[in-house]
Amino acid sequence: MSRLPVTLVLVAALALLASACGSSSDEDTGSTVAGAADCAPAKLDTHTKGALTIATDKPAYPPYFEDNDPTNGKGFESAVAYAIADHLGFDKADVSWTVEPFNSSYAPGPKDFDFDVNQISITPPREKAVDFSTPYYTANQAVVALKDSDAASAKSLADLQDAKIGVQIGTTSLEAVEDEIDPGEDPQVFNSSNDVVTALKNGQVDAVVVDLPTALYVTAVQVPEANVTGQFPAPGGDQWGALLDKGSPLTACVSRAIEEMRGSGELASIERRWMSQAAGAPELR
């Protein structure tokens, strides 16, 4: 057997070492998962040295946040955010929250936070402007209709084609309405989730489309005169990830934290506690 030149041996050894110690690609988001040594708090280049700044919108609704207070650790995304912080080595006292409107979170430009959790779907256009972690949740879309509307009795997506549907601008819910329902009338588009709920409550629309956990909160608290007509998958799936600045040095470490949580069952436990109701709505096809 012939001997390789010393330089080739060294190159091969270095390549093998980089493969073993470096990050691995995540198929869904294109993000990377870092090694433990790279994610020690002292090595993390955070927005504020020695602290972790997390963003979400205001108001912050259940089941993602409780009492409109992200800092209390209650609600699905609050719990997920603090679990990520813990895996990164930050105590709860080291975490601060800031407000970031949904529609501006994925706009190009520098961010005033380390990561944002706000039911933000991972999409290719958004990935051009920001980073996403590996997904922490996959959501179905849901139709919420006033009980006395024809949309409330829909048994299929085709039954909704004549309905007047409301949806928030810039969301995967809008894409889902256009691609999966394809109503005869263009959906009415609103600037915020509050505006969507108000339109439903005031009868401006027959139904709205939101993610399923939000739909359960809307019908339980905000518009009790409405029902969840049914759920359906978003085109290509609707995966939520932590949003970070484009090229953030934290992206790989946040992904690593989520993968650890998934592997240990911690993420599933958080989901069961705060999102358990999301499985019961009928499916629309």
Explain this structure.
The chain is α/β, with parallel strands linked by helices and 285 residues long. It has 2 domains: 26-137 and 240-279, 3-Layer(aba) Sandwich (D-Maltodextrin-Binding Protein, domain 2); 141-232, D-Maltodextrin-Binding Protein, domain 2, CATH 3.40.190.10. The protein is 32% helix and 18% strand. The strands form 5 sheets. A 5-stranded mixed β-sheet has the order 10-9-11-8-12. A 3-stranded parallel β-sheet has the order 4-3-5, with helices on one face. A two-stranded antiparallel sheet has the order 1-2. The protein is elongated. Mean pLDDT is 87; it is low at 1-31.
Give a brief rundown of this model.
This protein is of the alpha/beta class.
Largest sheet: 5 strands, mixed
State the helical fraction.
25-40%
Query: How many distinct beta strands?
Result: 14
Strand order of the largest sheet: 10-9-11-8-12
Q: Give me the secondary-structure category.
A: alpha/beta
| Count of helix runs | 9
User: Could you name the CATH homologous superfamily of the largest domain?
Assistant: Periplasmic binding protein-like II
Q: What's the SSE pattern?
A: HEEEHEHEHEEEEHEHEHEEEHH
**What's the mean pLDDT score?**
87
Distance between the ends = 63 Å
> How many structural domains are formed by the residues?
2
CATH class of the largest domain: Alpha Beta
What is the CATH architecture descriptor of the largest domain?
3-Layer(aba) Sandwich
- Shape descriptor reads elongated
Q: Determine the CATH topology of the largest domain.
A: D-Maltodextrin-Binding Protein, domain 2
The radius of gyration is 21 Å
